[in-house]
Amino acid sequence: MALTPTPHNAAAKGQIAKMVLMPGDPLRAQFVAQTYLEDVDQFNSVRGMLGYTGTYQGARVSVMGSGMGMPSIGIYSYELFNFYDVDAIIRIGTAGGLAPDVQLRDLVMGMGACTDSNYAAQFHMPGTLAPLADFGLLRRAVEVAEQLGFDYKVGNVLSSDVFYNDDETVNERWARMGVLAVEMESVALYLNALRAKKRAVTLLTVSDLPLTGASLPAEERQTSFTQMMEVALGVATSDVR
């Protein structure tokens, strides 16, 4: 067991809740903390990766940025699961919609995560492992979304290592296989959770449509995706009571 703080996280043991919401953008973590949490304590600012713990409807919840890509969320989620005794991580991220019926601002829940990454190679599996969300967290996310009256879609997402892909046909091919949206983190999060025997689920808001070029501005991505945030907080609250 490594000592805390770590080189990437200034928190001491006990400063981080058992349930962590994890956006890619640290400014979205700050927005969640300032908008929804009470009695907030900032536990991290190392490398600009902001982390906060507070309460929401009486439940203790943390929120922390993960950065972009699987190497980044791989570090932070590994440390949270293995060094800080975190039980569950809910990724609250943005994604590019791929399926024909996925539009801007839609809420997508990642039941499974495809990938073009080699992240899983470290586990030396004798075949291809299919990384899945924790069913209990996913089911609760669906329940909360329905209680709040939010539309949602559940299915496969793609975690890609490449944002600017030289092969311009890849997104069309993933869409043909029913993949709802593309992002860059969920596979590493799901694999780390599986290996640590912990739980994870990804909730995404569609911020752009790669096949059409439609996109939302950066500021709106940081502060306006409140349906995703409220579903995640509802899951966190019910999970820790």
TrEMBL record:
Record flagged with keyword Glycosyltransferase: yes
Biological process per Gene Ontology, one example term: uridine catabolic process
Gene this protein is translated from: deoD
Pfam families from the UniProt entry: PNP_UDP_1
Family designation: Belongs to the PNP/UDP phosphorylase family.
EC code(s) of this entry: 2.4.2.3
Protein name (record): Uridine phosphorylase
GO cellular component terms given for this protein: cytosol
